[in-house]
Specification:
130 residues, 9 strands, 18% helix, alpha+beta
């Protein structure tokens, strides 16, 4: 019984060390709506298999967050826009990279973002109205 307990503890320690190491070598990208309007967002990033993919739309109410990507690459591209009122819409966009977002026939200009490789873990992109 004692040997089984020791073996179980060793396996648990090895498993948690492996998990911790994997999480230390990747980013979890989170979008947070810090605007007082509802927004929709999209991301283009390199997934954990090395493929560049575009995901959207993430509909976020004021104060809401969404986990949008897991990546080991420090660069990703983001796009966002407020929903209403249409005549005073706010955009978070760029002019260099353009991607299609699911459900739309248009291409959108995405803004490049670069994460700090010394700070693996959670990375939050905040969308503010100002």
């Amino acid at each position: 019984m004692h040997r089984l307990l020791m073996l179980a503890l060793c396996l648990m320690t090895a498993f948690s060390a492996g998990q911790s190491h994997a999480q230390n070598n990747q980013f979890t990208v989170i979008f947070r709506n810090d605007c007082n309007r509802q927004i929709q967002t999209a991301i283009n990033y390199r997934d954990l298999s090395g493929n560049w993919i575009t995901n959207g739309w993430y509909l976020l109410d004021p104060g809401e967050t969404a986990t949008v990507a897991f990546t080991t690459n420090r660069i990703y591209y983001m796009y966002g826009e407020s929903i209403a009122p249409v005549n005073s819409r706010i955009y978070w966009r760029g002019a260099v990279r353009h991607f299609h977002i699911r459900g739309s026939s248009h291409t959108y200009g995405f803004r490049q973002r670069t994460m700090d490789m010394n700070n693996w873990g959670r990375w939050t992109e905040r969308f503010t109205c100002n």
